[in-house]
Structure formats: structure tokens, C-alpha cells
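re the bet — no i am not wrong, look at it urself. input seq straight from the record:
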Amino acid sequence: MFDTATKPAPLVEAKGLSRNFPSRQGILGRSRDVWAVRDVSLTLAPGETVGVVGESGCGKSTLGRMMMGLDRPTEGSVSFDGRDLSGLSAAEKRRLSRRMQMVFQDPFGSLDPRRTIGTQITDGLRIHRLVPAGEVEAELHRLLDLVGLPREAAARRPHAFSGGQRQRIAVARALSTRPDFIVADEPVSALDVSIQAQVVNLLMDLRDELDLAMLFISHDLHVVRHLCTRIVVMYLGRIVEEGPADQVFASPAHPYTRALLTATPSMKPRTQGGAPRILPGELPSPANPPSGCPFRTRCPLAEDACAEAVPAARAMGPNWTASCIKAAPEVLS
């Protein structure tokens, strides 16, 4: 289990990541850059699970794909184990891909319906030649045992399994290459609530047993709180708060983080002072973001100074920052 009191050398490090996409708007088809991610820096240490949260369209998945090397950043860099991904040859990237795997949101679309799950799980073993040919079946059985599936499941095709079982298959396939780093992009959002807990507990057990670094992307704050050691809150492509999960959840420092947390359904009754903070208006378009602080058009604390410049990250505590000129930890009721 990762210890937040220590700062081991990062396994994955993103520096100043930005990603834009050209977009045509209006009847004249005028081209305009849409920035999905803006100036994001982030590290993950071995064994650490970092949760990335925010509203749909805030850039979470684009960030995850860049940190996996699947999308090339427009600006900035990603390094894995000290090696800059942008400077690697195709052969080097292929070799490094063994250590970096992704679990996608849709367990139905991420598996080939025409092939047995045994062949799909063992693809990585064969491509990277991780075990001798005579030991592939034994390794397949070990992986199925690891994710709690019966060994006879190897001969079936994906349609024979439930959504939760398919996501377990996807996890087994990701683990087949013995990775050090996994990006899990909304891996439980397509599942029933009762199945979500099983998959999340599986990911926790595997993380602790295998010392995996994991970037866990989700809009479900309950899941993130249960699983992650550190939390990153994104708004309109930027990180607005980052820190140890227990501290951020207990006393968020950014008004957007507070709004997200108080809007999350809770089994506990709220006091009058802890009433949900409903965000006014819509999420601004990434093609036409507000000047200054990206959150100012919906922020209850906004003032004229917020329109002048994007606020710098301010220290709220050890390894804890918030990007707001009025940032201050506030205990939630």
C-alpha cells in the first residue's frame, strides 16, 4: 500500500501537458482550437492510486490517454520510469507497452466477440513472450484465479458473461503483461451498483498485491474515496485541486471541489449549513473558455480579480494545492 507520508521517485510523470483538437464552428466553418487539457503536471509513484474526478468533458480521459502514450500531447511531456515517451522509437514503445496497460469503461465493447476470452487474455503473453509456450495455459489459469473467474471460462466467448465478469476479463487481460502502471478509465460506470463494489475491491486487492500504480478516472466520488490515496480535481481541462484523498474529502479548499462533494448523494442527513451547493449555469465551452480562472463564471466567491489571470496553485498543506485566490480548507458538515 502506498504511504502518502513519503515521496518515492515517480514511476510516471507528466509535465505541462496540454492537448488541443481543431474544431470548425459556424456556417463559415471557421477553425478554432479546442483545448481538452491545459498545462497539467502530475506524478504517480509505484503502488499509488490517484483518482481523477470532474464533470463530463473536463479532460479526464484525454489526460489518461496521454499518460498511457496513446495520445500525443500538443505541449508538454510524459515520462515513464525516467524515459520520455515522445522520444521512443516504435519498437521501444512496443516493449514499454507491456508495463503500461489500460482498462476501458465499456466491458462490452473492449472485447472481441468472435474470440474466446482465453485467447484474448493470452495475447499479451504470446506477443511479449513472457512465458514459454508450454506454460501459457498455466499462466492463463493463474490470471483467471486472480480475478475470481473459473478456469473453464477460458473456452467461452464474451457474450456468455455478465458486465461485471467482462470487466474482470478486461482486468485479467491488462494484468497478463505484468504491468507496473494501469489507467482505469471509468471502469465501473457501466456496471450495476452491486457489481461496482466487487470490481473496485478487486482493483484494490490487485493494487496491494502487485504494487501497481493506478490512475483511476471516475465521476463517482464514493468510489474514488474508497480506492484512491490521492485525488486530482479537474475543471475545463485544468487541475484546480490536488492532494491526499482523506484531506481533500474532509476539508476541500477549492469552491468547485466543495460543490462536487456536497452535490454527491449521502446517507447522512445534512445540517442547514451543509446544504448542497448547486452550481449555476452550464460548463463553459472549451472552445471559448472564460478569461482568468476557468471556474469564475459559476463560482459563488468570484470577484473582478478572478478574470485577470489563471490562478496559480497555492499550498494548502503537505502535497496539497488548490488553484484559487480564495482557496482555504473548509470542513464539510
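see?? The first helix runs from residue 60 to 68. told u. also The CA atoms of residues 108 and 162 lie 9 Å apart. so pay up
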